[in-house]
Specification:
The protein is an alpha/beta fold. The chain has 2 domains: 5-120, HUPs (Rossmann fold, 3-Layer(aba) Sandwich); 129-217, putative n-type atp pyrophosphatase, domain 2 (Alpha-Beta Complex). Helix content is 30%, strand content 25%. The chain has 6 helices and 9 strands; from the N terminus they run βαβαβαβαβαβαβββ. The strands form 2 sheets. The chain has a 5-stranded parallel beta sheet, with helices on both faces. α4 links the parallel β4 (93-95) and β5 (118-120). The termini are far apart.
């Protein structure tokens, strides 16, 4: 592929994955995944996905990965360091899965000007239900690993993303794409993965505002019942 050398801001969830997929289809040469970690450095900052599974995703996508934790005493956002590192490696375009939060898009654009890369938003301002269904039609598979504590809560935690689940969320008046924080996902298979990511569920971690599924690597892939 001879398109612009790029990095992808990678959460491990469906939106960053679909943005990566569409950018590849548009000819971007995505070489690097950039992920933000929590303060302990053992899970992703937004979705709570274990670092081991983030690494397994990158391996099965055949891409290099940069993982940046947020230190308690570090005044600089880790993404600034990540973006500079990506640009230093020759990736002058960044792929982002943002959909409609204008303030975050503006922050990325400001960061891009400061660090010297061009931001690309393949999903911007597209209906979230349409995007979630495009993700499924493309053949990707994802597990709901975080859910807002009150609604939808335990009803969807641990379920595989599906058309039935999207319709269920819509009937309840919730955003089918989870853009209001209803849920987050972990992508474990799809058309750009060499093979599925093997994982197993350990339990549920309860936080003040959300529930997290505790995952870990396993030796071989076992399909979801």
């Amino acid at each position: 592929m001879s398109g612009p050398r790029s990095f992808c801001s990678w959460s491990g969830g469906k939106d960053s994955c679909l943005a990566l997929f569409e950018a590849l289809q548009q000819g971007y040469r995505v070489e690097l995944l950039v992920s933000m970690l929590g303060e302990n450095g053992d899970t992703s900052s937004s979705h709570g996905i274990p670092t081991s599974l983030l690494k397994a995703q990158a391996e099965r996508l055949g891409m290099e990965q940069l993982l940046f934790p947020r230190g308690k005493e570090d005044p600089e956002h880790p993404f600034l360091k990540a973006a500079r590192a990506a640009v230093t490696r020759g990736c002058h375009h960044g792929i982002f899965g943002d959909i409609f939060v204008e303030s975050h898009r503006q922050w990325i654009q400001d960061t891009a000007r400061a660090c010297g890369f061009t931001p690309v938003f393949p999903l911007w301002h597209r209906p979230t239900g349409e995007l979630a269904r495009a993700f499924l039609r493309a053949g990707f598979r994802a597990l709901v690993v975080a859910a807002r504590r009150e609604t939808p809560g335990r009803e969807i935690l641990g379920r595989e993303l599906s058309e039935d689940l999207l319709e269920e969320l819509e009937r309840k008046g919730l955003d089918p794409g989870g853009e209001n924080g209803e849920y987050h996902t972990f992508v474990f298979d799809g058309p750009i993965f060499r093979e599925p990511v093997p994982f197993e569920i350990e339990g549920i971690q309860e936080e003040r505002e959300r529930l997290l599924l505790k995952l870990r690597m396993r030796e071989t892939f076992k399909d979801i019942p």
